[in-house]
Amino acid sequence: MIDDLHIEIAESGGHLWYRVRAGKFRSREEAEEAAIKVMERTGYSSKVLPVE
């Protein structure tokens, strides 16, 4: 589905948090479509952010 996945793990307030960075997209719209597919398949919310 999405190539080039990278997972970062952080601890905050006694909880583990996972940031999953996925792929390179030609447009924000393309990234939003991928985020919707991830949400539909996993049930987890997702957010599209620009690369910092």
From TrEMBL:
<dbReference type="Pfam" id="PF05036">
    <property type="entry name" value="SPOR"/>
</dbReference>
<feature type="domain" description="SPOR">
    <location>
        <begin position="9"/>
        <end position="48"/>
    </location>
</feature>
<dbReference type="GO" id="GO:0042834">
    <property type="term" value="F:peptidoglycan binding"/>
</dbReference>
<protein>
    <submittedName>
        <fullName>SPOR domain-containing protein</fullName>
    </submittedName>
</protein>
<dbReference type="InterPro" id="IPR036680">
    <property type="entry name" value="SPOR-like_sf"/>
</dbReference>
<dbReference type="InterPro" id="IPR007730">
    <property type="entry name" value="SPOR-like_dom"/>
</dbReference>
